[in-house]
Write a structure and sequence with these properties.
With 524 residues, the protein is of the alpha/beta class. The chain is 24% helix and 21% strand.
Length: 524
């Protein structure tokens, strides 16, 4: 079996892994390997913002699904995750939403301030390159690798959604969707350049691949981390090993990083034995603390044309190819609002995403949607092994809506969405509910509707959670080092101790940037 030697071996070319590989390889004296299970991101649909959902269920998607969820009436939920260069940043809806400054309080508590808002903000800005200011507030990061732009050709109804938010007292957010002022509404900042998707692979990885000291391996699933005398020494692929002289870093995501730790014998000893894996390090928090954003679509029939319902036409394709404009340049989720449903002060508990189209067979897409997102769920779940074979998908149990308070907050968010559709700005655009959404119903009926319709917003975090030594469930320390193992870190959204009031692409990129700084500091 062949062997190749590097200073650093990074597993996973997603949002965090691309950023980390690019930054570590800036040192020409360092050899870096970036290993990705998926292939190259060559499908033209990857570049087209409106085509994101068409990539789900393809070779670019891990194709995960949850176990049946008691809180969702026994339904199992598909869990798309990117499986290509750029990871989920190559298949997501392009939204750049770093979240509320208070989100990082839990990170600060778990790191003695190392991951507070003030500490991480420079790493977010380091990633950003704004193409046209999103507002009149202060904007940072004009030289970063990731282009951030407002929607290029927003649907006319999107401006009316923002006016409707104003009718209900929500001010427009300026200067980007991240920081202490995070209640209000805004056009969605997007990771796109000139109307095309700009993934972490585009911004970070492709320029770095021109360096001779970075080797990118695609189509290479990692089977496990190699351990010798309490130290990570490399990773095992199907037919060869990659040796890491300094460190192995898992950036395989909330599912993949936890699964790889367990396949390597790092996790809860009892569970590992039951799965047929030899325990090496007892770390019971691996795979636990799973959290995700839950969303419910409030859909209404449209009284007028809905361009996104017929986006993929020859005329629209020609317009997109010629000018990178028109319906195909839309990311679908064109505007957002952040709301505190009790009307009081403090950080928002619900996000509303405006999509000028409807996933409704009744109207053939010719509708308007406000997606209601639960920002801070109390429900917790887990990821566990289905067996010792690396080819087996793990068991994913997010525990959706297992906490009663989560259902009540979602219901309050739905009531706010109903009020939005009733505003002067929007009421003329809608003609009743679009099935399967039933329209306004009593609270006792609405709870059942929410449980029947709720799904994922694709933001899982927490399975390799960060924490201090007295936290028995912590998997990594504030420097992202795996507890009980030398030379091994995790750097991706799995280390986030509590799901943020934002979208996880920005957080994962920031973690990759910060991890590079921590690793370079450790190297001298």
């Amino acid at each position: 079996m062949s062997k190749a030697e590097f200073d650093y071996v990074i597993v996973g070319a997603g949002s965090a892994g691309c950023a980390l590989a690019a930054r570590l390889s800036e040192n020409p004296g360092t050899r870096v390997a970036l290993v990705e299970a998926g292939g190259a991101d060559t499908d033209p649909a990857v570049r087209i913002p409106a085509a994101a959902a068409s990539l789900f269920g393809t070779a670019y998607d891990w194709g995960y699904g949850t176990v049946p969820q008691a809180g969702l009436g026994g339904r199992a939920v598909p869990w798309p995750r990117g499986r290509t260069l750029g990871g989920s940043s190559a298949v997501n809806f392009l939204m750049w939403v770093p979240g509320h400054a208070e989100d990082y309080d839990a990170w600060a508590d778990a790191s003695r301030g190392l991951w507070s808002w003030d500490a991480v903000r420079p790493f977010l800005h380091r990633a950003e390159r704004w193409a046209g200011a999103p507002g009149t507030g202060e904007v940072y990061g004009t030289e970063g690798p990731l282009w951030i732009s407002p929607p290029r050709s927003p649907d006319p109804s999107t401006a009316r959604f923002l006016r409707a938010c104003g009718e209900l007292g929500l001010a427009e957010i300026t200067g980007g969707l991240g920081g202490p002022e995070h209640t209000g509404c805004a056009l969605t900042p997007l990771t796109e350049r000139d109307g095309a998707r700009w993934s972490a692979a585009d911004g970070y990885l492709r320029p770095a691949m021109e360096r001779g000291n970075l080797e990118v391996l695609t189509g290479e699933p990692v089977h496990r981390v190699l351990l010798e005398d309490g130290r990570a020494t490399g990773v095992q692929l199907a037919d060869r090993t990659l040796t890491a002289r300094r460190e192995v870093v898992l950036s395989a995501g909330t599912v993949g990083s936890a699964q790889l730790l367990m396949l390597s014998g790092i996790g809860d000893t009892e569970h590992l034995r039951a799965a047929g894996v030899r325990p090496r390090v007892h770390l019971p928090g691996v795979g636990r603390n799973l959290q995700d954003h839950v969303t419910v679509d409030v859909m209404m029939r449209a009284t007028g044309p809905v361009p996104l319902a017929d986006a993929d036409t020859p005329a629209n394709r020609e317009l997109y190819e010629r000018e990178r404009r028109g319906p195909l340049s839309s990311n679908i989720a064109e505007a957002v609002a952040f709301v505190r449903t009790d009307g009081g002060p403090g950080a928002p508990d619900v996000e509303l995403i405006w999509a000028p189209v409807a996933d409704s067979e009744e109207v053939g897409g010719r509708g308007l949607t406000t997606a209601v997102v639960l920002l801070r769920p109390d429900s917790r779940g887990s990821i566990t092994l289905a067996g010792a074979d690396p080819a087996l998908a793990p068991s994913i149990d997010p525990g959706y809506l297992s906490a009663d308070g989560d259902v009540r907050t979602l219901m309050a968010g739905v009531r706010f969405a109903e009020r939005l559709f009733g505003t002067e700005s929007l009421r003329g655009l809608v003609d009743g509910p679009a099935a399967p959404w039933p329209g306004p119903v009593a609270d006792d009926v609405l709870e059942g509707v929410v449980r029947e319709r709720a799904s994922t917003l694709f933001h899982p975090v927490g399975t390799c959670s960060m924490g201090l030594p007295d936290d028995e469930q912590a998997v990594v320390d504030p420097w992202l080092r795996v507890r009980g193992v030398e030379g091994l870190r995790v750097a991706d959204a799995s280390v986030i101790p509590r799901v943020p009031r934002g979208h996880t692409h920005a957080h994962a990129v920031m973690i990759g940037e910060r991890a590079a700084e921590l690793i370079r500091g450790a190297a001298g």
